[in-house]
Amino acid sequence: MTPFRAYFGTKTATMKTLLCLLLLASLLGNAQPGTDTLQTKFLQPADMQADFRYLRRLLEETHPGLYRYTPKVIMQAKLDSLAATLDRPLPFYDFFRSIAALIADVRCAHTHAVPTKEWQKQYLSNWKALPLLMIQIQNRSYVWFNGTNDQTVEPGFEFLSINGQSMAQIRQTLYRYHWDDGYIQTAKDAALRLHLFPAFYYWFIDRPDTYQLTLRNLRGDTVQVNVPGQPYAESAKALVKNPVNKQMLAWYDKKRPKKTWRLSFLDDVARTAYLRLDSFSGEGASDAEQAAARFRGFMDESLAKMAKKQTQHLILDVRNNSGGWDIQGVELFTYLMKSDSAVRYYTRLHTVTDSSEFLQFSDLPAAILKTVKQQLIPEKDGTFTEKEDDDSRELRPQFPKPNRFRGQVYILMNGHSGSTTSEFLAVAHANRVGVLVGEESGGAYEGGNGGSFINLKLPHSGIEVTTPLVYYDNAVGEPHQKGRGTMPNHTVSFTLDNLLKNTDDQLDFVKKLIREQGK
Predict the structure, then answer these.
(1) What are the C-alpha distances in Å from 409 to residues 82, 323, 355, 434, 518?
(2) 23 within domain boundaries
(3) Which CATH number does the domain housing residue 157 bear?
(4) Is residue 140 part of a domain?
(5) Number of other residues whose CB lies within 10 A of the CB of residue 490
(6) Nearest CA to 318 among 327, 326, 330, 329?
(7) C-alpha 67: how far from its chain's center?
(8) Are 484 and 184 in contact (CB under 8 A)?
(9) Residue 13's pLDDT is what?
(10) In this structure, are 238 and 311 located in the same domain?
């Protein structure tokens, strides 16, 4: 039978895109904003302590990476310290901040907490959030879209303060609560953009009726603006109508291409193919074997086209690819690897339980739950290693594909290249598959946690928690700095100019490398 990961080896991001939220907002029509009942909810000590004990048991019994970056003695001290603070009634959001801080301290990109399972619906309908959507660029925060009717504020305006608090202080606070692998700053910057920044501000800083903003316009002048807090459905409608967003919408809110994976050939660089992989989502696959087969079909067809055009250079773009099926990352590697002999992609995958009652809340099918013990090898340290068998090809040595690409490979990456994508980048880096260009990846070089997941509602507060079941060890050797992502060979950062002019310095840099190589 197939172990945990072969069924659910898909570690995708949970946050919806701007396009998805705009669609949801349009479906709500003219729905009137409601009330955030969580603002007036108080939790009693007994209820908070019960929720905390429940969460602590979940983490200690099932989380494989609970002590990955924090020694057990220190993590246990954190847990004990938090438990001791729950001795008086607290407003809901104060308790949520404590839980979110604990979750962030695990330093796992697949471990997160949200105030309620229905948070996206609440964000659309009820929460009076900041109506300006922003992007973080090189330690600064800029307006990306204006979700008000006021045409004063344009894309590219820099946030200096909100309600009297500097943006440096605000970013520091919000970064404290975001879930990421290890110590990767690019992942935080990539995540806290568009709708997630207003949501995090609302959860962790304040929920005002009016946001008093100090901004710097494109001429360098300071501008004071007051904007109303409003549900995202209202902001989305205003965003589409406000003419200051017209160009940004034309550039950045295009419909998703029909194909997740796309191959094209550049006109301005000789014998160069451009392979864009938006995700490793499987193209509708329902299991790992199907996901692998569909990806192989795409790659075989792509390699044949590249051979026909005598392609010498391949630009692989996995920027903003937040992951998916593990097996598709492995398959991609076998089409690009330089070694003529087999190499490992993962050295080990393990879990810390084969029988916890919390497994009933996991995404594992009932049939797999009955056979979990048969799929795991008990170790002396109390962990369980996934068996290396015919149903877990990812764990076996990987052989190069006969039709693999043998030319020069260039890989574009950034802080949103996470999960399965970050594992591929780490293994590609360790095996010198190609030249990496862009920014630090969004997942830890040595591996993360994922595979299968538990989704748990804390019974008294209603806080929704998601945790992984499998600990991944990438076959990359010891990292230079534990808890950091894969580093590019050439760091090329995204800039405000790139945003405002819709240019791509990272892709242009690779094209320049290829042209110089041909001289």
Answers:
(1) 49, 20, 44, 5, 14
(2) yes
(3) 2.30.42.10
(4) yes
(5) 13
(6) 329
(7) 21
(8) yes
(9) 37
(10) no
CA distances from 491 to 293, 306, 323, 458, 499 (A): 34, 28, 22, 42, 18
- Is residue 100 located within the same domain as residue 162? yes
Question: What pLDDT does residue 20 have?
Answer: 54
Q: How far apart are CA 93 and CA 90, in angstroms?
A: 8
Q: Which residues of the chain have pLDDT under 70?
A: 1-33, 255, 390, 519
| pTM listed for this prediction | 0.93
State pLDDT tens for residues 305-330: 999 999 999 999 999 999 999 999 99
Per-residue model confidence (pLDDT) at position 175: 95
Q: What is the pLDDT of residues 402-434, one digit of tens each?
A: 999 999 999 999 999 999 999 999 999 999 999
Q: How many domains does the chain have?
A: 2
In 192-322, which residue ranges form alpha helices assigned H by DSSP? 196-204, 232-241, 246-252, 288-308
Query: What is the rounded CA–CA span in Å between residue 452 and residue 442?
Result: 19
Q: What would you report as the CA-atom Rg of the chain, rounded to the nearest whole angstrom?
A: 24
Residues spanned by the domain of 371? 261-451+476-517
On whether residue 270 sits in a domain, the answer given is yes
Distance separating the N- and C-terminal Cα atoms of the chain = 54
User: For residues 99 and 103, what is the distance between their CA atoms, to the nearest angstrom?
Assistant: 6
Q: Regarding beta strands 376-378 and 490-491, do their DSSP bridges make them parallel or antiparallel, or are they unpaired?
A: unpaired
Tell me the two tokens of residue 344.
């490992």
Q: Which string of DSSP letters, residue by residue, matches 13-42?
A: --SPPHHHHHHHHHHHTTPPP---GGGG-E
Same domain, 115 and 230: yes
What is the predicted pLDDT for the residue at 253? 77
